[in-house]
Amino acid sequence: MKAKDVMTTRVVSVEPDATVLRAARLMLQNRISGLPVVDAGGALVGIVTEGDFLRRAETGTERKRPRWIENLLTSGKRADEYTHTHARRVDEVMSLDPLTVAEDVPLDEVVKVMEQHRIKRLPVMRGQKIVGIISRANLLHAFASVAKEMGPPAPDDATIRSRLLAELDKQKWAPLALIDVVVRNGVVELWGTITDERQRQALAVAAENIPGVKGVRDHLAWVEPMSGMVFLAPNEDHVEEAKAS
């Protein structure tokens, strides 16, 4: 899938000389957390988000620091913070040169940009023209749609087992030589030994993602490398206690 397949095509934007109050109202009215800033010629010149309005003089939320820290700040830093808390126009608070993606960029590249720069939305461009916005919500919608369209469950236990083993064979963390997989009526039973407790959940997740799996039963024993102590799965502990009582 590409950016154009999941982006929001109705782009709500704001002008650089608009007031910050107008930008805030647009966000509230359209239930969005950011706006691209577009000039009279249709060029993208910046982006303004709800984060730009978190600290405002009107609400008394300007940043307050101990005096000794305040004295370490440059006059430029103080001036910049004053601008953001007291500005009246969008162009005085917006982020310049916003990151963008082309409409044909694959979704994995979109996610990579969002993760690397810790941002929630990206303008989608066709050349120099903004044609959409892609946000984390769009990615969530895409995931939900794809999950809904997944193929039918596997028809038998043997198919489930072979698919799970094939998946684990591709994973370097999976201790294939130490575990066994048994499937009965769609329920996967995991037996054997793991050398890291985190493998337990990863193995369960791998099983749960195989079409047709109705449940996962964990019988794995974790052998702690340093002490050699053996820790059974929580449900196995419960079974042993029940037998002892």
Mean pLDDT: 85
Describe the largest sheet: 4 strands, mixed
Q: Which architecture of the largest domain per CATH?
A: Roll
* Beginning-to-end CA distance, first to last residue: 56 Å
Shape: elongated
Rg, please?
27 Å
**What's the helical proportion of residues?**
25-40%
Strand content: 15-25%
> What is the CATH T-level topology of the largest domain?
CBS-domain
Helix-strand category: alpha+beta
What is the quaternary state of this protein? single chain
Return the domain count: 2
CATH superfamily of the largest domain: CBS-domain
Under CATH at level 1, the class of the largest domain stands as Alpha Beta
Elements, N to C (H/E)? HHEEHHEEHEEHHEEHEEH
Number of separate helices: 9
- In total, the number of strands is 10
Strand order of the largest sheet: 7-8-9-10
In short:
The protein has 2 domains: 3-147, CBS-domain (Roll); 157-244, 2-Layer Sandwich (Histidine-containing Protein, Chain: A), CATH 3.30.1340.30. Helix content is 37%, strand content 22%.
Task: Spell out the blueprint of helices and strands.
Blueprint: H1 3-6, H2 20-30, E1 34-38, E2 44-49, H3 67-70, H4 75-86, E3 95-96, E4 101-102, H5 107-117, E5 121-126, E6 129-135, H6 136-148, H7 157-169, E7 179-184, E8 187-194, H8 198-208, E9 215-223, E10 230-232, H9 234-244
Parallel strand pairs: 4-5, 8-9
Antiparallel strand pairs: 1-2, 2-3, 5-6, 7-8, 9-10
Report on this model:
With about 240 residues, the chain is an alpha+beta fold. The chain folds into two domains: about 5-145, CBS-domain, CATH 3.10.580; about 155-245, Histidine-containing Protein, Chain: A, CATH 3.30.1340.30. Helices cover about 35% and strands about 20% of the residues. It has nine helices and ten strands. The strands form three sheets. Strands 7-8-9-10 form a four-stranded mixed β-sheet. The chain is elongated, with a radius of gyration of 27 Å. The relative contact order is 0.11. Mean pLDDT is about 85; it is low at about 235-245.
